[in-house]
Amino acid sequence: MNLQTVRSSVDAADATMVLLRDLIDYAGLFPPAALAMTPAVANYDAYSRSEWNWVLGRFIVPAARLGEFEEAFAGLPTPTPGFPSCRLSVLLSSDPIADVARIREFHQRVTNSVSGRKVIVESVEVKVTNAGEITRISGIVPAELATYFEVPLSGCGECIAAVGGCGRRAKIRTGGETADKFPAPESVIEFIRLCAAARVPFKATAGLHHPLRSVHRFTYQPESASGIMHGFVNVFLAAAFLRAGMNANLAVQLLEEQSAHAFHFDLDGAGWREHRLSRGEIAATRRDFSISFGSCSFTEPIDDLRSLHIL
After folding, report:
1. What's the number of domains the chain is made of?
2. Inside any domain, residue 3
3. pLDDT (tens digit, 9 = 90+) per residue, 190-202?
């Protein structure tokens, strides 16, 4: 079954869940959406209640804005019984010691809250420039917090090795508001390959609003320039194939694939052209390796997935 074929069985829907579950971390506070806190939190709440809530991951918020988040979150409607917890990933600043203190204070306040809503800080994310920073910051962040280090792609091997040595996770920036922010397919594949070799889980951020590699506007402004963007289906299947042993040159071709007909999903797994992954391989990759991606829009990826009849 290709991506353009209307799915007619529950089995096919179940197969896609392996790839898509918990995939999209909502970053509505950040460009190009750049929403204020209250509407961004309200959006996350609405997505958590929607039929596609199983695709939704964490809410991304800077450490310095946790108090602002708390106030907006407290203003949400009373949750229904069994309402899921709100999962956060907190962005650290250049002062990680102060940020960790903020997280601890925030956690203590929300733990003692009687609002009936459970808020969990699942992870933190921080941008670094070298391996030394990774070692230093890793010593500051509590071990129980999953920590994603956004590393420079140029010569990223040393940084990824440091991330692995600290038992932490890596992060790749896959786009932005201008063409120069989108890394070459070869650079993306090299990052994923090095992570796989070092057994370092990773997440992606920016520029992955669409399932397949394609041309789109870089921002939501009418005068915005357009350009080629990476597709999140391409990226996360490439990660699974690389982990399963695909060579880098072939993985680059997968990342560059723009034809929906080239991808296939069924009960037992997924494929790209003549190459095949089992459902178990995809599940293991999503669980332990390719964790999620951050997007300032949740509806745009969902709408595209629906238009391709993946959802």
Report:
1. 1
2. no
3. 999 999 999 999 9
